C-alpha cells in the first residue's frame, strides 16, 4: 500500500499522524510511505529521522495527496485540502463530521473513503482512538482554566487551589467520561472544589469509588446545572455522544447567571459544543468573552503539547493503520467490526448513523 502523511496545516496543529517508528514498521512490511518535509518538526521528529526509517520525503502537500492511496492525518482536512482529495482515496484521521456541514459535504462530494478515529470502537464499546486525546484534553482543560482565571488573563483573579485560610475555586465538570474524569482528577489534585455531573448512575457509582473527597458527584439535569452556575468559577464541558452533535447543556440565557470573570472550557467544541455560546477558536486566538464570561474553545487542544500528544495518539492508531495497510480497508473492516464503526463517509454516502441523522437532508 502507498501511505501518505502530510504536514498538518490547521492553525497551530503541531502533531503528526505517523512516527518514524511506525514508518519503519510499514516499510519493513513492504509498504511505501511518503512523508511531507517538515511534517514531524513540531513533534520533535526530523526529516532525517523519517528518511532513516525508509520514508520518501516529498516537498509539498499536493505531492503527498497525489501519490498516496491512503492518507493518515491527525485533524480533519481543511478547505484548502478539499480539492486534493480524490475518488477512492482512503483517509484515516479525526473528522468530527457532525460539527461541520462544509467538511461533510466536501467529503461526500469527493467520493473518498473517510474512516474517523473518533468512532472506531473496541469490543467493550469504548472509543480507543479518542481516549488518548481525551486524556490530554481533560488535563489541559484544567491548566488552561487555571490560567484564564488569573487577573492578567481577564479572569476573577482566583488561584484554583486557594491557600490556607482562603477558599479554593469551584469547578463544574459536565460529563463523566474520559475528558471529565481526567479534568476532575487534575482539578481536585490542585485542591479545587469539584462538582462532576453525568446522567449515568452506573458511571457516577464507579467514579464515587475512585475520586478523592473534594469531588462531589451529582446527577446531571438542567435544574442541577442551574443550581451551580452562580457558584462556580470554572466550567469544563466534557459531553460526548459518539459521532453526534453535543447537546447544549448551558444556554445563552443560563450564562447570565455566572459571575463576571469566570471561565468556560468547552472540550466538546469539535462536536458543536455543549455550551451554546461556544464556537471553535485557535491556539493563536484562544478566547473571547460573552456576558463577562471568558470562553476557551480551542478545537485542537492537544496540539499545544505535540510531543506528548503525538506519541499518545500513534500508540493507539498505529495498530489499526497496520491492519488497513496489510489487508486493505475493505478486508480490515470486514475482519474488525470495531474498525468498521469508523467508516463515516464511503464513496459519496454517509454511512455512520449519527452523522447521517445530523445531515439527513443530504442522504
From TrEMBL:
Does the record's keyword annotation contain Transcription regulation? no
Q: Which PROSITE patterns match?
A: ALADH_PNT_2
Quote the EC number: 1.4.1.1
GO MF annotations for this entry?
A: alanine dehydrogenase activity
Family to which this protein belongs: Belongs to the AlaDH/PNT family.
Q: Where is the Alanine dehydrogenase/pyridine nucleotide transhydrogenase N-terminal domain?
A: 4-137
Q: Which PANTHER family match?
A: ALANINE DEHYDROGENASE
Instruction: Give me the reactions it catalyses.
Output: L-alanine + NAD(+) + H2O = pyruvate + NH4(+) + NADH + H(+)
Organism, scientific name: Neolewinella antarctica
Q: What does the organism's lineage look like at the top? A: Bacteria, Pseudomonadati, Bacteroidota, Saprospiria, Saprospirales
User: Looking at the Swiss-Prot or TrEMBL record, what is one Pfam family this protein matches?
Assistant: AlaDh_PNT_N
Residue stretches making up the Alanine dehydrogenase/pyridine nucleotide transhydrogenase NAD(H)-binding domain: 149-297
Keywords from UniProt, A to Z, are:
NAD, Oxidoreductase
Q: What is this protein called?
A: Alanine dehydrogenase
Could you say which enzyme class this protein belongs to?
oxidoreductase
Amino acid at each position: 500500500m502507498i501511505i501518505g502523511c502530510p504536514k498538518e496545516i490547521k492553525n497551530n496543529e503541531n502533531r503528526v499522524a505517523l512516527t518514524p517508528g511506525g514508518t519503519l514498521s510499514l516499510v519493513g512490511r513492504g509498504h511505501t510511505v511518503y512523508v511531507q518535509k517538515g511534517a514531524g518538526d513540531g513533534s520533535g521528529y526530523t526529516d532525517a529521522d523519517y528518511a532513516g526509517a525508509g520514508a520518501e520525503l516529498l516537498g509539498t502537500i499536493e505531492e503527498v495527496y497525489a501519490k498516496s492511496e491512503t492518507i493518515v492525518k491527525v485533524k480533519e482536512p481543511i478547505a484548502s485540502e478539499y480539492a486534493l482529495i480524490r475518488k477512492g482515496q482512503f483517509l484515516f484521521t479525526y473528522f468530527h463530521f457532525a460539527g461541520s456541514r462544509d467538511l461533510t459535504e466536501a467529503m461526500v462530494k469527493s467520493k473518498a473513503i473517510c474512516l474517523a478515529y473518533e468512532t472506531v470502537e473496541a469490543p467493550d464499546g469504548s472509543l480507543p482512538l479518542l481516549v488518548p486525546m481525551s486524556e490530554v484534553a481533560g488535563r489541559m482543560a484544567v491548566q488552561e482554566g487555571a490560567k484564564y482565571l488569573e487577573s492578567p488573563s481577564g479572569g476573577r483573579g482566583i488561584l484554583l487551589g486557594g491557600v490556607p485560610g482562603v477558599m479554593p475555586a469551584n469547578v463544574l465538570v459536565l460529563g463523566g467520561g474520559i475528558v471529565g474524569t481526567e479534568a476532575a482528577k487534575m482539578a481536585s489534585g490542585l485542591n479545587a472544589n469539584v462538582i462532576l455531573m453525568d446522567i449515568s448512575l452506573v458511571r457516577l457509582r464507579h467514579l464515587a469509588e475512585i475520586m478523592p473527597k473534594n469531588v462531589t458527584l451529582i446527577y446531571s439535569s438542567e435544574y442541577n446545572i442551574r443550581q451551580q452556575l452562580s457558584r462556580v468559577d470554572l466550567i469544563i464541558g466534557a459531553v460526548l455522544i459518539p459521532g453526534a452533535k453535543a447537546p447544549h447543556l448551558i444556554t445563552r440565557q443560563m450564562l447570565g447567571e455566572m459571575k463576571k470573570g469566570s471561565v468556560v472550557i468547552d472540550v466538546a467544541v469539535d462536536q458543536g459544543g455543549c455550551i451554546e455560546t461556544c464556537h471553535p477558536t485557535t491556539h493563536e486566538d484562544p478566547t473571547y468573552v460573552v456576558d463577562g464570561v471568558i470562553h476557551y474553545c480551542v478545537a485542537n487542544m492537544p496540539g499545544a503539547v505535540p510531543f506528548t500528544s503525538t506519541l499518545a495518539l500513534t500508540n493507539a492508531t498505529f495498530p489499526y493503520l497496520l491492519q488497513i495497510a496489510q489487508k486493505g480497508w475493505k478486508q480490515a473492516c470486514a475482519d474488525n467490526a470495531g474498525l468498521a464503526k469508523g467508516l463515516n463517509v464511503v464513496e459519496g454516502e454517509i454511512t455512520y448513523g449519527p452523522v447521517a441523522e445530523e445531515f439527513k437532508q443530504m442522504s
